[in-house]
Amino acid sequence: MSASASITVTDIDRLLPQTQCGKCGHPGCRPYAEAIAEGEAINRCPPGGDETVAELATLLERPALPLEMDAESPKAAVIREDECIGCTKCIQACPVDAILGAAKQMHTVIEAECTGCELCVAPCPVDCIDIVPHPGWQATRDAREQKDWLARRAELGRRRFENRNARLERQRQEKDARRRARMQARQQPAEQMDQAAPVASTSTPSTPAPTGNTRARKAALSATVRRLEKRLTAAPDDADTQASLKHARQQLADLQTQGEASAASTDARDIAPSSSLNSLRIARSAAKQRLALANRQLAHARRQGGPEDIEAAQAQIQRAEKTWQDACQALDNAERH
Ligand code: SF4
Ligand code: SF4
Ligand code: SF4
């Protein structure tokens, strides 16, 4: 049976004790309230006891079933501090941040903030946490004080649980941002390589790779001139193509002149072709490694990352493939000349 439309999850959550212990089978009181609103049984909260079942039954107009487990009275955790080894596992487990301590330092429970959920007990590797009747509860003198005390504890427990969840979410986002920044930083050197590598498949004659590798630039420009000449054969009146071709031929001629001047100023041994081919081979090898790395990063993102990591890795693969194709093309062209 579902809660009436006028009853909200917040109305239900307000009746739960906010111990955040998970004994109902949900990771906190609010998730259990959401489940109750969807029709889950109302008798699964031991810290709330029969009173909570009765209040939920009245609110939701459902039968007040007997509790599934024994009711529990308010408790608190106490750390035997001289036995604590400062491993911080209890801090990580506490749903309301009620434990103080630092790595390798003694830890202590803030009694007023402890809901007695017992979640810190199991992770403690030296079993130095005791669960005791809550001193605040024990100090109450009558039913009215008990009711007030439970209401205060519930309010504090809810607030601290929400604050902790907000903090964890914030930390998760910061971690994601750091991971993205690391991935970008890893991509940058590869992108710099893109810019440094000679690229033969330039779309305009003004963009052959600006490197000191004259032979590769010549190969790229020659390929561009041939492509433009072909285009001009199909469309002889295309003014843009004519201008581009003129520009590319001019660049090629300049390069030729530079090469001749350089050759004239050195002795007859011309070591440039082999060194430029070596550079192109190194660039191709680097592009291949980058592609392999990008594929590994994608596999890692699929195993452990989120959608954003996968998207970033896929984009990186596309860039790496383009670099690889360009590097292969540049080497082919250079080897042909
Ligand atoms: S106090 Fe524990 S058992 Fe009760 S609703 Fe909250 S998390 Fe569930
Ligand atoms: S100190 Fe332990 S018992 Fe107390 S709220 Fe934190 S985890 Fe629960
Ligand atoms: S889990 Fe136990 S040993 Fe580790 S810090 Fe907490 S109390 Fe100390």
CA-based gyration radius = 36 Å
Bound molecules: iron/sulfur cluster
Q: What integer is the average pLDDT?
A: 83
Shape: elongated
Q: What is the rounded distance between the termini? A: 81 Å
Give the biggest sheet. Answer: 2 strands, antiparallel
SS summary, helix count: 10
The portion of residues assigned to helices is: 55-70%
Number of domains: 3
Assess the beta-strand content as a share of residues. under 5%
Helix-strand layout with pairing:
Blueprint: H1 9-14, H2 29-37, H3 49-60, E1 75-79, H4 89-93, E2 99-100, E3 108-109, E4 129-133, H5 135-138, H6 143-196, H7 214-234, H8 239-264, H9 272-304, H10 307-336
Antiparallel strand pairs: 1-4, 2-3
This protein binds iron/sulfur cluster (3 copies).
What features would you highlight for this structure?
binds iron/sulfur cluster, Alpha-Beta Plaits, 3-methyladenine DNA Glycosylase II, Chain A, domain 3, two-stranded antiparallel sheet, 337 residues
